[in-house]
Every structure is written in structure tokens, then in C-alpha cells.
Records
---
Amino acid sequence: MNSPGKKPKTLVRVRILGEEYSLRTDASAQHTKEVAEHVDATIRSAMAAGSIVESHRAAVLAALQITDELFTERAAAESIASDLRGLAAEIMPLLPPAERAAEELA
């Protein structure tokens, strides 16, 4: 039984390297399938790029590549957020006093 206000998990079937997986997720089926397709493509790319034939080794390399992508995007997002905070600090003195007070409370 689901808690009030809590979205029920969806069962999504995906295929990675020809194997079917049933995933219970809060995400949409479309999103889950896109994620699985990305994982499948990254593993296949790792297998095609070298002499790796064992799927578990290719999966580890794919996990490293996907994690690198995640960390790179997080760093870029933090850099943008930092730039925006800097711009906001520069703009704050230019705001009329009433708006400045409202922004400082927010």
C-alpha cells in the first residue's frame, strides 16, 4: 500500500546487452528506457573500442565513463551557479532599496 502523496513505482522492462531487466522506478517509463539505452550504448562502445569481450569488464568501463560524464556536468552546473551568485551580488546594489530588502529576505 502506498503512502498518501507518494507516487507509486512503475515497472519498466529494459534490455541491456540482450538481457531483459525489470526495474521499479519513480521515473517515467520513457526516461528509464532512455537511461537503459544510454547504458547499453556505452557498454557496447567500450566493447567495440578495444579487446574487451567480457561484458562485466565493459560494464565497469561504461560505469566509469558515465560517472565521469556525471561529475563533469555537476562541475559545470556548480560553475554556472557560482557565476549566477556572483552576478546577483553585483546587481544587488543596483536594485532600489525596497527590492533589495525583499531579495535579501528571500
Note: The radius of gyration is 22 Å.
---
Amino acid sequence: MAVEVKLPRLGQGMEAGTIVRWLKSEGDAVAKGEPLYELDTDKVTQEVEADAEGVLLKIVIADGEVDVGTTVGVIGAEGEDVSGLGDGNGAAPQPASDAPAAEETAQPTEGATRAAEPRAEAAPATEAAPAPEAAPAPEALPTPAAGTGERVKASPLARRIARERGLDLAAIAGTGPEGRVIAEDVERAAEAAPAAAAAQTPAPEARPSPSDEVEVVELTSIRRTIARRLTEAWEAPVFQLTVTVDASELSATRERMVELMREGEAKPTVNDVLTRLTAAALMRHRAVNAHFVEGRIHRYPTANVGIAVATPNGLVVPVIRDADRSSVQQIAAVRADLVARARDGKLQLADLEDGTFTISNLGMYAIEQFIAVLNPPQVAILAVGSIEERPRVEDGELVVSPTMTMTLTCDHRAIDGSEGAEFLRDLKTFVESPALAL
């Protein structure tokens, strides 16, 4: 019997997703668990696996934004009649000027974002005033073919931009494959629309205006998510604690590990060693390894440490699970994979979930010290500065050694000052003597 393929709910609060492309064509054999299509959620683009085995008999919705639970395809036995399945869905929702914008990938966050969050809605966009019939079409925009009543072929990004700019996709000529409307087409249409309208009215006397040089940047979906998450973080009553540590042994430990690494292994970084040391300190202070959820504190038995990663689309926080039970080399391998996929936009929702603590390291940018913003519902985040040669007093003598600052931001609803201070004290001890934790 044929099985309808429905859009899954991949995270708490997810109400819709955007089908980017199908990885199978109608008539292809499909195995259970095999990737079927790519889905863009509010945090990541990931492959959705088939829940059944058989033949992909019908693709109901080829691409575009789709509500959770909607039938997008049908799998069954070869030759099975499925003409009536999936027809009740209707076509995928058409972008409209007053439709809420769907969010892209992700968190914190990245200071960070979290995978399972409600979708934010954008304010209704204002429709552009139609130009008089006598107005000539701008040269940059070839006149599209007359509508056929079929759904306009357009990329998900083009639909998103058109919705945010209040543009009608049917009025935009596509330059992509088979006339598909792509993001560049929508951008050109958005730039040409004001020029076409201005051509119908006498030009006002030219006056220099500062606004002529202002670049207005529309928020991407991930930036809207980051904005919402950081606003939530500022609602928490927080305090910060800062320590300066001698990073001599931390750097030396990392260098020795690099010397001992085998061919093909990921090269450990200072942050990899610090992640392992932080996980050890978290196991001594579970009050810091916790979430604050609906007036309750959830303390966790393992350290799932999130690493803030900057990507072209915004900050995301992939999670290194069970960092307290992993070696530095294992952490390095997981981190290398997560960072590579984060920058390629290939993270899965599972990569962003279940973090219990976050590290944000800006040392590679020569930032000496900073304060990181909480990553709710986590109750603490560690901001790490650069390792630099600085003078300090040791046994009454002035010495110069590599030092590093660490600033812990704590949610005071879950952590008292003494608890945060004890955690930071132990972490300082581990950084200055890594053998105690490793």
C-alpha cells in the first residue's frame, strides 16, 4: 500500500520548512532511511530520510515552503495507482506580500542560537505601487511570459526575498534553469521597481542627502533568529566573573599533542584542550552545567559543550557531546567536522541540540577580553580572550609569560556568585595544570 511522505516536525516550535530540492526522482527506488529531499528549516538545511521502502511514485510538492504535516510525496509499489493521494494538499503556499517570512539556518546564538525555537514573523511588507500602463518596462527586467496558472518556479531564497520586498514572483522573468526565478532576478526587480515609478514623475530638484549613501541591509532569517534569541538572553539577570590565567602549560600541552598526532588526525587546537578542561570543571560544578526552563533548574550529568562558530550566514553553536568522557583528540575530530559543515551550511538539527554550556573564543581575533551573551536556556557561557605575553609578578619577581583572560557570564536565577567563582577557580587550576584534568 502506498505511503504518503509528510513534512516532519524536526524541532520544537517548527511549523513549516522549505523544500530545497529532491534527491530522488519519480520512479526511483527508495530504501527506508535513504535521503529523500533537502529541507531548509529555521536553523539548518538537512536531508530528510524516507520512512518507507518502495518506489517514489509521486512528488506532490517539488520545492518551496510547506507546513509541517503536509504530504510532499508518495512512496509505494511500482505501478500502483496513487492519482488521488496528496491532492488534498493543494500547491505549496505561494509567497505573498503580507505572508510571514520563514527563517533560515542558525544558533546563537551563534552570542548564540539554539536549534528548536518558534519561528519569528516579519512585519507585513508594503506592496510596491503599480506603474501607469504607459510606463516602459525597465531594460534590466525582460517581460516574463504570460501566466499559465501554474506555480511559479523559483528558488527558496528567491521566494523569501520576494516575500520580504513585497514583489510578485509571477511578474519577474527568471534567468535560472528552465526559467526558474533565482535570487539575483528578484534583487534586480527590487532595484528597478523604484526607478520605473520615478520615471513617471518630474524629478525633484537634486539635493544632496546623507541617506543616499546609507546601505540598508535586510535581516536574513538566521539574523532574525539571532536577534530574537539575544533579546531573550538580556531578560535574564546576569553577572560576570573574570580571571586571568597563566596559559604556558595549556599551550605546551597542545603543542605536545600536535607532535604525537597520527597522520590523518585532526590537529588539536588550544580551544580543543580548553573544551576538555572545561568539561572536567563542569562535572565538579553541575550548577553551572544546567538549563533554566519555566522556573525550574535542570542540571545535567554530562557536559555537552557548544562551540560558537561564525559562518557567512551568522553565528551558530554546534555541540560536542559528552566532552567530559572524550579525549582531546576525539574532541578535535568532532570539532573539525562540525566547523567544516557549519561553514558549508550542512549542519543537522541534531548538531545544534542538547548543549549544556557554551564556549565563545575570540582569541584568534586578538581580542583580549570580552563578555559573551547567554545562550538560553543554558545558565552560563565562557568568553575566552587571546593568549598574549604579559608581565606579572611571581614569587616577588616580575616575569613575562603567556596569559589569557576568561569571563564567565552566569544566570543569577540558577547560579550564585560563589558557585560561579568556584567553577572558574577550578577551571583556572586545570588550565594552569592540565594534567590534573586530563
Note: The chain has a mean pLDDT of 81.
---
Amino acid sequence: MNPAFHKTDYLHIEQDRHGPIRGRDIVIIGLQPWYFPTGCNAKNMAQELALHNRVLYVNFQLKRKAYLSKNPDSKIEDHVNILKEGRPRLREISNNLWEYYPKTLVESVNWLPTTGSLRVVNYLNNRRFAKDIREAAAELGFSDIILLNDNDIYNGFYLKQLLRPSLYIYYMRDFLQGYTYWKKHTSVLEPELIKKSDLVVANSQYYAEYSQSINPRSYYIGQGCSFEHFDHTKKFAVPEDISRTNGPLIGYIGALDSARLDLRIIEAIARAEPSWKVVMVGPEDEVFRQSSLHQLENVLFLGGKPFAQLPAYVQHFDVCINPQLSNEITRGNYPLKIDEYLAMGKPVVATRTGAMKIFESQTYLANEPSDYPALIRKALLENSPGLERERIAFAQSHTWENCIAELYKAISVVSKQKINS
């Protein structure tokens, strides 16, 4: 892996700035490994980037305590077994795309009392991680890499210095600083990471503006959606657990996370119209499980469902909702489910946040929990085939192809700036 930055590389990109970057070696790290069954932006981006480049998707390192556990979490069990059994750690996913299981273990750092002590241990973790990445890159013959860090503040913090990629890109799509668990250290480290990155890209305008206040080489690249799943042309059978439900179905799909969702909104909707059935599809956290919402007869908690089943629920909802709180976590967070709702042609009522600005013309936005019932009535009354077609067309402009095209443009802009500096 050549640690030097080559001006000619950027000239090549600049000459090709109106099309894809081609023939590069790209390494992606992030908060979610490839082997997790849930969807992930970085996985979609990797697949799109691999159409014209070679891409290595590096799973996160296992924490020592998790690895040594007699009963490891089922989500990481295969990774544990690969290491213990000495199985190959590099796996080809598709043409030009590989998944890698790091072998070195890391120490937990978030619990450390000071950010200074975290820096020391985290640097050692990053050195181990960098060694693993070098070995995988060498096995594939990668050189002069572009490194894309998917919102991984800790594991990616020192990799620019340790790996010396030709371009270090930080991808911001969540505000970890807003979570109590992460806030203490990430509120210090993330701005530093943003500042030292060669390029910062974000999936929401809000995060792009935040990053740009720290690093002028920050750009909004939009968000993609996998429309092969949320396909309005397919006819889905009514799911059994709502097949005998009467009255308009006001529905939500996604994790029922009390740090993001406002329970007052759900209650306001249910109490405003007892004939409405408020259908919540997704796993509940403890606050939701213990909430008085379970005492309301017209609020239906259906639990988590396989991703493949979600479009059937959305297709049979009359109105889709995103009853978010407005807080540090949600304010700039791109709500992918809005695209999924709109792709099925559904009217949508959601909380007004910074990230919802781009959906203003296609959704009904609430400023307060009490606004939801009236907006739902309006959505039910105004819905028409024409509006459904408009929503579908709008959603379908948010493709991964367009997202990566914007990433390529951002790379070209930063490339030109580096050449001229």
C-alpha cells in the first residue's frame, strides 16, 4: 500500500469528474459489519462503488470480552468461530467486492473516565485495526487506497495517520453525540475527526451544514433507497395480523426506540379517533413495552417483522407516520422510512425536523404532537391517484446511483482543491 499522496491520482479523477471514479481501490469501515442481516447505507454504497472500483468492506473488530464469552452474542457468533477455527477471513461477496473479518481484538473504550485515557487505548486499538486492514489490502493487491469511514468515530479516528490513504472520507449519517452512551467522548472526538478528514460527506443537509462549520470540504450527497423491495407495482397480500382490522390504518414501520419516537404523538392519534387503528410494526424498547399505550384498544403492537414483509404492511396502511421526537438525535437524521413510504405512494405525516426539509412538498409535517390528528384527517381526505404518482416519482429520485454520483462529484471537487493548494 503506497502511503504517499500522488497528484496524478487527483488529476485522473478531475478529468473524469462528470462520471464515475474508476479503477480505484476503496476500503470501507463502519459501525455495522456486512454479516448483520439488517440494511445499512455503507453496504449499499459498497455495492454501487464496486460497479467501477474494487471495494474491501472491513467488519468491525471484536471486543476481547465478547470474543472470550462462553455464550457470544448470536450476531457475532460466526465472526468468533471464524477466528477460533482459523477459517479464511476474506470472503468475496460479488464481483469487485470483498468482506473481511479482522483477527485482532480490541479493548472497550467508551467506559473510560476521561477522553485523554480513551485516546491512549483507542490509539492502540487503531494500530491493531490498521495492521489487519494492511494485511487484507495486501492479499487483494490493493494500493493507494481511498478510505471511507461510515460514522465510526472510535475505530476510524487514527486511520488517516496510520494507513495514509490517498483520500480519507468521513461519512456522517447519524449524530452519536446526541446519545447519552456516546456523548461524553464523541462530542470531543467527532469534531476533531471531521476537521482532519480530507472530505466529509453527509446523507442529510443538516449534517452537511454542521460538518461544513468545522471543515469546508463537507458536502451533502443525499440518500439512496432500495426500491426493489418497496415496489408499488407489486400486489402484496394483507398481512394476517391486520387482515381483520376495520377502520383506517395509521401505520409505522421501524424500531420503537423511545430516544427517537414521541409516545405522546401515538397517544394523541389514538385518542383523537377511536375508529383509527394505529399499527406499530417493529421491536419495542423497554420504555415502549412498559408504556400505557398497550392499554389503548386501537393501538396495535405487532413486533418486529422480517424486512421482506414490511412492504406488505406499508401497502395496506392508509396513512404512514413517523412520530419522531425533535431532539439532537433526530434533528438531522435522514428518515429512510419516508422514502419507503412515499415509494409505495402513501400519504405521510411526520414531525418537522431539519432533515425533513427536502420532503416538505410531499408530506404533512407536524410541529407539535397535537398537530398529528388534523394532518392525518387532511391526508386521508386529500389522497388521490395523482398525488400517489407524485410521491412515487419523488421517492424514486433518491437512488443509490444518484447518491454515489454526488460522492464522485465531491471527490472531484476536493481533488481540484488539493491540486491548487
Note: DSSP finds 15 helices and 14 strands in the chain.
---
Amino acid sequence: EGLVFVGAAGIAVRAIAPYVRSKVCDPAVVVVDELGKYAIPILSGHLGGANDLAGRISRISGAQAVITTATDIRQVFSVDEWARRQGCRILNPSRIKTVSAALLEGKIIRVWSEWPITGELPEGVRLTGKREEAQVCLTIHEGSPDTALVVVPWRMTAGIGCRKGISEEQIEAFFTARMRQNGFLPDAVRQVCSIDRKKDEEGLLAFCKSHGFALDFFSAEELSAVKGNFTSSPYVREVTGVDNVCERSAVLGSGGTLLLKKQRGNGITLALAFDGFSPSWRWRME
């Protein structure tokens, strides 16, 4: 979330200094002077949205937004701002500087995407059909070049079913193995869904907490009402009241379509669903 300090920039810097960690997780911080003349982003201008927050403050109060990030003041495509606006994570943020530096030098960067990207291509950006030559990859799958900046849509839902008393470590091992086996990036997972009879399952709760996954539960009736072609199990129906937990909960939670059908082993089931993702080239406030 954004933090707005009203007062001197120096006071704000000293206040936040002990807590600053990384551009990946630091919040937006904007300083507004006490007369409301200036709104100055001082932390997380792009990924945290501080530049946008300063712009919002400017429109509300009449303050001048003081933007200092190089790509913004030179009107150059900002890959991290673009990723944030598309609801994506950046897997390797150290590559942001490399991409931005190339664009600031007037070089061309090539983008490879699993999805069509609507809108007008930004200046200095080209699409490529060859993943191996891309400097930026928009993907939920493993296999991008080591030199590429990997942008991951944060829109995947994992449906998980498990036997009673399963441990966090068992779920972690199974999840990691099956994601790798099927070539999916764990960073694409936003939430985990299951049946409501698992809402007190300590291993599942701990697994989700350790990853920062949102967690949602549905009743057997809600899961039974989900339309689709699912892997049916008479045993699961007998125990839970619905023929499938992982696939149905993944689809219901995501509001999208099934991406990976039921994976089973060691008392755990896993399925993946993905919501409708339609990226555009929009990267700055209009």
C-alpha cells in the first residue's frame, strides 16, 4: 500500500530507512510538503506505483508531481511500470536496469509473449516469435533465456485437496515437484482454493502463509455447481460430497479455465486454473 508523508522529504527518508528492502516488495512512498505545492515519489516509483500515487495527489490537490525516474522524464518505455499495470510480477528484477538502460541508449528490445498484446508498440520495443532471442519474456512457463527479464502474470489459481493431517512440508514438496514437472512458474500462482472442510487443515494453512497465497474455500454444493469436464472420483464424492475438489475449486476460484488437470500423489491433489488475461501495451497513466 502507499504511504504519504506530509512534511520534509528528509524526515520521510529517515522514517522509512530501517524498513527499505527491495523494489519488489517496498510500498509506494510519496512526500507532500505542508503547503501542498509538490508531491514527490521517493520510493517504488514504478513497481510500487509511487509515480501514479503522486499523480493522483496532484490531480486532487493541485500539487505539482515531481517525477525523477529516468524513463518517465525521457518518455521511454518503462518495463517495470508496464508489468505492474498488467498485473504481473517480475521474476528477476535485477534485469530491469539492463532493459531500461538499453532503451535509454536508444537500443531496441525484443519481447516474447505467450499472449497477443493489444495496442500500439512503444518506441524501442519489438515483438519476436523466438523466445531465445528475447530480452523480455511474458510467460507463466519455465524456459526463458537466462539473460531475459521474465514478466509473470499473477493470475493462476491452484486447487488443492489433501488428506487429513497432511504437513506443510509434504504439500510444499508435491507442489514444487508438480509445478516443475509441468513447466509452470510458481510465481504465477496468486491464490489457493479448496473445499470448506479443509479450512482448519494446519499444513495447508501454513503452506499458503509461507508463500503469501490468498486462500479461499467453497462448499460441496458450490463446487458441484461448477460447469466443466472434470476428473470424477466416486471415493472423493463419498467422502466430500462432490466428485472432484482440486479442479472444481481452481476453476471456481479463478473464474477462468482449467490449465492443468488433477495431479495426484502422497495424499495430495493439485490442479491449476488461469483467468482471462489480455495484456496491452499500456504502461503509463493517460
Note: The mean pLDDT is 94.
